[in-house]
Amino acid sequence: MLKDSAIMAVLPAKDINRAKDFYRDKLGLEPSETIEESLLYRCGKGTSFLIYQTDNAGTAKNTQMGWETDNLERDMEELRGRGVVFEDYDFPGLKTENGVSTDSFGKGAWFLDSEGNILNIAQRA
């Protein structure tokens, strides 16, 4: 049943207006809909994500959403130009150099949004 259904990521925001500014100014995204106090964003291939206001934002310690790209370095350069700061990690199973991790899957990079959510861009090998 669910394998054929569309999915939508859901992200928390302590300040929905600050989040809206971040996603517009840093990521170049505009909400396609406003649903009460939530923002719906549409991305490629029919995917989407929702941002809603809650005091629980920024408490997750894991990647909450990611985008797949065909050119990680190009996208990182553009995002850095918009002020996005990529995280560096060094722990078992994940080590980054200049913000990039490389493994058998491919390459990945992580950054925080304005609400402390951990986001990712990745390029498959």
Automatic annotation (TrEMBL):
Keywords: Lyase
Cited PROSITE patterns: VOC
Molecular function GO terms recorded: lyase activity
Stretches assigned to the VOC domain: 5-124
InterPro entries documented for this protein: Glyas_Bleomycin-R_OHBP_Dase, Glyas_Fos-R_dOase_dom, VOC_core
Coiled coil stretches, renumbered: none
Pfam hit, one: Glyoxalase
CDD domains in UniProt: VOC
Protein name as it appears in the record: Catechol 2,3-dioxygenase-like lactoylglutathione lyase family enzyme
Natural source organism: Pseudarthrobacter oxydans (Arthrobacter oxydans)
